[in-house]
Amino acid sequence: MNKLLTVAIPCYNSHDYMRHAIDSLLPGKDKIEIIIVNDGSSDDTAAIGAEYENLYPDTVRVINKENGGHGDAVMTGLREATGLYFRVLDSDDWVDEEALLKLLDVLDLMNASDTPVDLVITNYVYEKVCEHKSCSINYRKTLPTNRIFGWDEVGKFGTGSYILMHAATYRTELIRNCGMELPKHTFYVDNIYVSYPMIDVETMYYLDVDLYRYYIGRADQSINESVMISRIDQQLKVNRIMLYDMDINRIENDKKRDYLQYYVEIITLATVALYLRIGTTEAEETAEAFLDEIKAHNPVMYERIISRPFYRHPIRPLRALSRHISYPLYRATYVALRKHFGFN
Predict the structure, then answer these.
(1) Domain that holds residue 295
(2) How many other C-beta atoms lie within 10 A of the C-beta of residue 225?
(3) How many Å from the N-terminal Cα to the C-terminal Cα in the chain?
(4) What's CA 10's distance to the chain center, in Å?
(5) Alpha carbon of 215 to those of 71, 88, 206, 231: distances in Å?
(6) Which residues are paired to 33 by β-bridges?
(7) For residue 222, what pLDDT is reported?
(8) Domain holding 77: CATH number?
(9) Measured in whole angstroms, how far is the alpha carbon of residue 291 from the centre of its chain?
(10) Do 79 and 196 lie in a common domain?
(11) Under a CB-based contact definition with an 8 Å cutoff, are residues 169 and 87 in contact?
């Protein structure tokens, strides 16, 4: 492996914004490998990728493939990666130059080590461009800073501060060999991407820099509420994979198991909240049936959800209170929180 870091950029009809993503990585120069995965685009994505490949042949590679969705593009980039570490950059996002150079310094140290860490964690920033707002997510209260550590030194993750794809730089060998398969033609697979390899992670390094800039504001963006509701079947599909295919309950380390269970709970909360947000009787019945399904197929997770305090497990009231009380209260709370925090 002659590169420190491989960054895969899945691109589907991304010609309007992919240049910004690519340009933000170029300061990495010879230490970085940029793999542009053209996922069957019908616009100028392939041509733009070829332009960068010609200009920077030692840094940029383009892989043109039939459309398979975001997860399939990520898996393609992972199979082709030659860097010691691997991460994903969505084509409408970008990275901070100063933070990128600091990350590469850390990866240089890992490259010189006999035992490079499994995961390097950095901060990410929600960039709400249309609102001229930004919000940085960091882990200063949870993780030791600027040194190697294991799960026993990890503190309690606060609500909203769990590790997303944007924060994770995995050791390539680990994520490639962990058995993860991202389903084709499915949105929201980044939740599988960031949690499935975590089962095998033993050592970590937290670099407290705002690396990843996560663009929020496009009407067709997958995290837009109306888009998520229209694709709720895909959210449910990903949720089921995390509940039933990831064998979290077998993890021996208490803190690792607790964190991953918590993360799956958050994804389950999002699924249930979206069904209740729809507001139809059919959607409500689907949400109830999903909770019954969890009880039958993953009783450990179900017991965890309903046996802890309401504030930590907000799904619990749906089972503890009458639906005539809990459903309207749930919807009103969701709308209020969405308005206050501005999340999609």
Answers:
(1) 225-341
(2) 13
(3) 39
(4) 14
(5) 19, 14, 23, 20
(6) 6
(7) 47
(8) 3.90.550.10
(9) 24
(10) yes
(11) yes
The string of pLDDT tens digits covering residues 85-119 is 999 999 999 999 999 999 999 999 999 999 999 99
CA geometry: angle 250, 252, 257, nearest 5 deg? 75
The pair of structure tokens assigned to 69 is: 């969705």
Q: Provide the 3-class DSSP secondary structure of residue 77.
A: helix
**Amino acid identity at 255:** K
Same domain, residue pair 173 and 149:
yes
Query: What are the two backbone dihedrals, phi and then psi, of residue 125, each rounded to the nearest 5 degrees?
Result: -125, 125
Model pLDDT, residue 270: 87
Of 124, 114, 101, 89, which Cα lies nearest the Cα of 31?
A: 101
- Give me the residue label for tokens 């749906």: 318
The label of the residue with tokens 């820099």 reads 209
Do 198 and 249 belong to one domain?
no
Q: 10-residue block means of pLDDT along the chain (344 residues)?
A: 92 97 97 98 98 98 97 98 98 97 98 96 86 84 97 87 94 97 96 97 98 77 69 96 94 96 91 90 94 96 83 78 84 73 54
Q: In the chain, how many H helices and how many E strands?
A: 13, 10
Phi/psi for 203 (5° steps) reads -120, 145
- According to DSSP, residue 183 is labeled P
Whether 180 and 242 map to the same domain: the answer is: no
Q: Where are the alpha helices (DSSP H) in 81-171?
A: 97-112
Q: CB within 8 A of 234, min separation 6: which ones? A: 186, 187, 188
φ/ψ of 147, rounded to 5, equals -160, 165
Helix axes 254-278, 232-240, angle to 10 degrees: 160
Residue 341, pLDDT score: 53
Strand partners, 94: 213
Both tokens assigned to 284? 């409500």
What is the separation of C-alpha 299 from the centre of its chain, rounded to a whole number of angstroms? Answer: 25
Q: Considering its fold, how many domains does the chain have in total? A: 2
